[in-house]
Amino acid sequence: MSSFDVSIAGLTDPSTNLAPQPGVVTLVVNVASKCGLTPQYNGLERLQAKYADRGFTVLGVPCNQFAGQEPGSATEIAEFCSATYGVSFPLTEKVDVNGPGRHALYAELVAVPDADGYTGDVRWNFEKFLIGPDGQVVSRFDPRTEPDDDAVVAAIEAVLPR
């Protein structure tokens, strides 16, 4: 199975499928509005602005599984992201990233190891997964890794369509 084989609805438009698309490099990030890591939205937005015209997108995936830090409705989440961080990248419906209700996209993602060899459940909000233009997961980054960390930028640049 590839990340192209799943469907994940848009936050405010459930009829839109925001799953990774062929030819597009996608950084999938489970996000939350009330987390100590929420300021990472700034770095994610900078990545979006820098690479969007080269076949890249951030895909924010709201999740309320970590200490209830994404409790809002779809409208509240969208308004917070837009007003507070100027988020322009797509946001999906709120989903579970762990456990028996884990979304199919995350079932694919969590099998990939990070730089330290960790695989398995998402550890916290803002864990990052980089999907190449061919739909394969190429990198995984710890939640505390800032979006503009050299390792994240190098991984994105290595798989961007030329």
UniProtKB/TrEMBL annotation:
Source organism superkingdom: Bacteria
Any one GO molecular function term: peroxidase activity
InterPro entries per the UniProt record, alphabetical: Glutathione_peroxidase (IPR000889), Thioredoxin-like_sf (IPR036249)
Keywords: Oxidoreductase, Peroxidase
CDD domains on file: GSH_Peroxidase
Stretches that traverse the bilayer: none
Family under the similarity heading: Belongs to the glutathione peroxidase family.
Protein name: Glutathione peroxidase
Organism: Jatrophihabitans telluris
